[in-house]
Amino acid sequence: MSHTHRILTGDTPTGNLHIGHWVGSVRRRVELQETHDCYFLIANLHAYTTRADAPQDVHRDSIEVARDALAMGIDPEKAAIFLQSEVPALSELTYLFAMLLPFNRVMRNPTLKDELTVKGLADNYSFGFPLYTVGQTADILAFRAHSVPVGEDQVPHLELTREVARRFNKTYCGVPDKALDEDHESLGGVFPIPVADVGKIGRLVGTDGQNKMSKSLDNTIHVIDSAKQVKQKIGKIYTGQDSRQPTDPGIIDPDENPLFQYLDVFVHDEAMKADIRDRYERGDNIGDGEVKMLVADAINELLEPMRERRRQYEDDAVVLKVLKSGTARAIAATEQTLDMVKEVAGTGFFARTLTLN
Ligand code: ATP
Ligand code: MG
User: Fold this and answer.
1) How far is the CA of 111 from the centre of ligand 2 (A)?
2) 144's torsion region: left (phi>0), alpha (psi -120 to 50) or beta?
3) Cβ < 6 Å from ligand 1: which residues?
4) Which of 102, 129, 148, 259 has the fewest other C-beta atoms within 10 Å?
5) pLDDT tens for residues 228-261?
6) Residue 12 resides in a domain
């Protein structure tokens, strides 16, 4: 029942990809595509949690996110980039998995609570909003993925996924109650228990200096930003040190000052970084302005080859072709899982074959 080590991860098309995606997940995807069977999902159904009234925007951003991923170095010959809405097994499994999860368990998810607050949804969120976390378990398990490269905010979702996988394997596949996670597949479970692969930078702060950099908040540096826009955005970062003079000493907690997180992540010259931090702490004639310039240059250096690659994918038809072939691969993989699921869960009666025209 075992298969090649598989990776599944994805992005919601709520806007263009940003440098938080790069450090949190996409950089890892680019490495993994060399050695693993990789599937990268565009979660366009989940985008309706916040954008149900803007279907054209979701449609456009689905193509944009794919274009950005290609620009960042995802190779469509190696990895499958695909559309959630075109892979029916994902919705079918969501329905079944929703039956395996207590409602209160879904609502306890801290990331879900955070998102409701940050996105200003209070009591007005749709029934589909909490359901999307169940959908995410389906996205991952439908590929029988072993590992999921994600940012820190996704770890609670992954925990939910692991619970569903364990419950499914125990309820329908006879995996014993006390089985270790790593033994589930060899004991006959349909699903491996997937692990979160959180990169070194699990949460890049946004240019507001406070929240996680997020597509839905106006605090991002996009892959499509021009060099000038990057300079402007970095220039406006609020560091909480704005009245500080270059000669003021001060203890800088890198977790508190977004500029220093950016310096750590994007500037690679370790000796220079140590020197800057030291001078900044001593108030040795260095202010935010100088650090901002260094950071902006480093980010532009990272983005330049991405901007260049993006030009090859300017035509929507080229991106759609990539998405179609990725989606066909995703359908094949998930239909196979669905067959296995239906057989043990008692929902299968007939064989079926799905094809894209
Ligand atoms: P939205 O605001 O719509 O939730 P987002 O910017 O949070 O969008 P997602 O599509 O939710 O982006 O996330 C895609 C992947 O990128 C996830 O694995 C997530 O953890 C990771 N990610 C997103 N933002 C960051 C960030 N600032 N730092 C590290 N990883 C991130
Ligand atoms: Mg998010």
Assistant:
1) 9
2) left
3) 11-12, 14, 20-21, 23-25, 150-151, 153-154, 202-204, 212-216
4) 102
5) 999 999 999 887 766 666 667 665 665 567 889 9
6) yes
The 10s digit of each residue's pLDDT in 173-226 is: 999 999 999 999 999 999 999 999 998 888 999 999 888 999 878 899 999 999
Instruction: Note whether 179 and 300 are same-domain residues.
Output: no
Q: Give ∠ CA 78-79-82 in degrees, rounded to 5.
A: 145
Shortest-distance atom of ligand 1 to CA 12: 10
Asked if 173 and 269 sit in the same domain, the reply is: no
Residues 110 and 183 in one domain: yes
Cα(151) to centroid(ligand 2), Å? 9
47 CA closest ligand 1 atom index: 3
Range of the domain at 319: 6-204+315-345
Specify if 66 maps to a domain. Answer: yes
Q: Compute CA 29 distance to the chain's CA centroid, rounded to the nearest angstrom.
A: 10
Q: 50 alpha carbon to ligand 1 midpoint, in Å? A: 15
Q: Give the CATH number, domain containing residue 298.
A: 1.10.240.10
Tell whether 219 is covered by a domain: no
Inter-axis angle of helices 258-266 and 288-310, nearest 10: 50
Owner of token pair 């955070």: 114
Residue nearest to atom 14 of ligand 1 (CA): 11
Amino acid in position 61: D
* Ligand 1 center–CA 76 separation, angstroms: 21
Residue 297 has pLDDT above 50, yes or no: yes
Residue 1 is predicted with a pLDDT of 40
**Same-domain pairing of 180 and 249:** no
Angstrom distance (rounded) from CA 299 to CA 286: 20
